[in-house]
Amino acid sequence: MLSGPRSVAALCFVGIFVVWPGSPAVAAEPSAPAYGIGLEEAWIPLPDGVRLAADLFVPTGGAAGERFPVLLEYLPYRKAESRARNHALYSYFVRRGYVVARVDIRGTGNSEGRLIAYEYTDREQEDGEVVIDWLAKQPFSTGKIGMFGISWGGFNAIHLAMRNPPALAAIVAVDATDDLYQDDVHFIDGILHVDSWEMSQDLDNARPGAPDYRIDEAYFRDRFDSRPWMLTYKRQQRDGPFWDRTALKARYDSIRVPTFVIGGWYDGYRDSVPRMLEHLKAPIKAIVGPWSHSFPHDANPQPRIEWRREALRWFDHWLQGRDTGILDEPRFAVFVRRWHPPGPVLERVEGEWRWEEGWPIERIRERTLYPQPDHLLAGEASAADTHRLRSVPTAGAEAGGPVMWWGDAAHDQRPTDAMSLVYDSAPLAQELEILGFPRALLQVSADAPLAHWFARLSDVAPDGTVTQVAGAGRNGAHRASATEPKALEPGQPFSLDIEMHFTSWVFPKGHRIRLAINNAQWPMFWPTPYPMITTLELGGDLPTRLVLPVVPEALRPAPVFDPPEPDPELAGFESLDAGSVSGYGEISSIERNPQRGTTKVVATNAGGSRYPWGSERTEERITHEASDAHPEATSVRGEHRTTVELP
């Protein structure tokens, strides 16, 4: 039991950081801004006669016939409407001597052809190889191609790198993952998740391209009458070939292309960063900072960095043979998070940057804490005991945050903790830093054939507020395999290993460490259809325990990043309403009926933009409803509307 300073001291370490030069004095500065920015439209022909629509952002003011390396962002997100975003984002590279190509995927935006059947199909990747080859052979191109992007663009960069097309020289992937099944928005942690993006994307897929919005027989055949992606994905509930077709996790050695990955502590795809650092054999570089699902120069929360300078150094090295010193630095830059109060509003995260050589970090040591019968956490296992929990299917709205992703700036955890089994350490005598994947090793049972378990690690401040530090869920049917799930034997205890998502945190002196275990985190995760009572076994031969990746004190260098550079605006494009901070539907109301035991959670978002050809407004409202007595009746209704007004 952690009952005083002596027992706590074994867990406590303090980090000391200094700034060392990251690269040798002989390293060259990255390319300097020397060009203007031009925009050209192009059609890229495919072997089957379909053409993909491309915007080419080109350097202007250079020598006649000058050739440039080319960067590619390959997406379904409608290049015409996103030109203002693209002009601002790409300007950093274009002014420094790169052509940036933004290409609409087949059947999306302004590209021709039938909409791809779902995300990341073989057809999409085969088309991508043709695009790379076409860009390499253009008169403006040096023949060296780089790929970059966030989310889908990051996924595609990874997937194309797995194919190793000859002209692809390097990639930068932001907020992407190597494990589509466990990390992506369809079945997070192997449990059904209904996401704002899924529903809004199906609406976008059905829209004709701007600015003509042509509606004809080809439009109905190729887009409007296509099968919604969401229906395809929700029928793929098990891990296996459908998900593994482009999952890097099973074949890390497939990538020979130099790879730079960037993640954020408040983004759901961050787990891939240490895994790729550990397993990729190609040259690799990584940054994890205090950001949500956004590019780090324009991200929330702050501090922001000019990540494009680091990407430029990477591309200069691999596409131009320029020694920028980036390979002489440690491979991993990590932002160490210090305490902050719970979300959902989080403007800035306190902490500091640190270089690490890669992953895993050799000096990290595991520390184990054991839940006790009196609901404390201690350094030794207790005598055998059993704790029981009646599952509340509508519990957990606070645990998922407003967007309902792991890593989202979650609310104060106390309302969800009240419906969980909770175990606290004694107040810490000194601060304690963790970095990695905390694990909850549980001995559990349920009186139903299907149950989910959720483990959350939190920081309990002296005033009682509870900030979520890490968490994860586990489908009990997947205890042995997510490919071949098996029903539970009611009442039969079994071991369940819950590896929480990648995290960094410094627990301050005087704060407590909390482990919370429960069986529902709705509406982020779809509940099982059974009311149930679950058990947690303490002590015994295989005691339930929490394993923390503790970082001992060490003298480490720190990177120094440039602040974000102002971006130019594009005339004719204007934001009328930016919508939610995340850009997705966020929880706006929770209505509980204690007499009926029902709960309704509503997530909303709205936005508007003006373009040279007209204006567009979007609205979404997602209504989740569930009953504690009848979880089998859980429902969700998504209403999404896009209104285009033309002069």
Describe the structure in brief.
With 647 residues, the protein is of the alpha+beta class.
How is this structure best described in words?
With 647 residues, the chain is of the alpha+beta class. It is 16% helix and 33% strand. The chain has three domains: 36-356, Alpha/Beta hydrolase fold, catalytic domain (Rossmann fold, 3-Layer(aba) Sandwich), CATH 3.40.50.1820; 364-553, Jelly Rolls (Sandwich), CATH 2.60.120; 574-645, no CATH class. The strands form six sheets. It has a ten-stranded mixed sheet with strand order 2-3-5-4-6-7-8-9-10-11, with helices on both faces. The protein is globular and about 80 Å long. The model is unreliable at 1-25 (pLDDT under 50).
Task: Give the overall shape, derived from the CA principal axes.
Answer: globular
Largest sheet strand order: 2-3-5-4-6-7-8-9-10-11
Low-confidence stretches: 1-25
Structural class: alpha+beta
CATH class of the largest domain: Alpha Beta
> What is the CATH superfamily label of the largest domain?
Alpha/Beta hydrolase fold, catalytic domain
Number of spatially distinct domains: 3
Tell me how many strands there are: 30
Q: What is the percentage of strand-forming residues?
A: 25-35%
